[in-house]
Write a structure and sequence with these properties.
Elements: H1 9-25, H2 29-41, H3 46-57, H4 70-87
Length: 98
Amino acid sequence: MAEPIANNDSEDRAAVSKVVKDFVNGLSEESRMLVVLKAQLYGGMWEPMLDDLKNRLNGKPYIFKLANRIQDDIERIEQMLEFEAENNVDLVDYIDLP
């Protein structure tokens, strides 16, 4: 008789959870602030924040002045956006909002 196949669903969720926890714990203060701003000013979406930053770089109207290091913030956002997509999570759920 064949052995029953173990359900790897809970193991997969635990592995993803650890990956997310490790990622969040490794975020810089600047990255954490971007996640907070994403939640509080941009309706939980990265795209409007990226548009704001790129518009600022191009001298176009923008909503919010985030920092002088715009290019660094854009790179941070793109990294976190990619991480969220790869792990099917929203980092807002893992950061304590003020």
